[in-house]
# Entry
Amino acid sequence: MPMYLFRATYNAEGAKGLLKEGGTKRRETIRQLTEKAGGKMHAFYYAFGEADVYVISEYPDAATCAAVALAVNTSGAVTIQTTVLVTPEEIDAAAKKSITYRAPGA
# Structure
């Protein structure tokens, strides 16, 4: 299944909810959300910096991942950005494909 990296940032409302529920309860909530959508959560970390939470999960397809992202983003408490992760084997396969590209102005 394709792997995805989610970077989540809480707004004030979301941070208040996190303080109320605690970090482990939020992690379990996200794990359950992921599994109900047919996916598997591999990692969940809180962080300092650009994002408050980093999650690595796999989903059966991009549409399922998009549905999860939309559900989370429309909550109004958190904003997530999603990145498709590519394995080294997928890069090997991509390197074997012949693609012709003309740079702008070339």
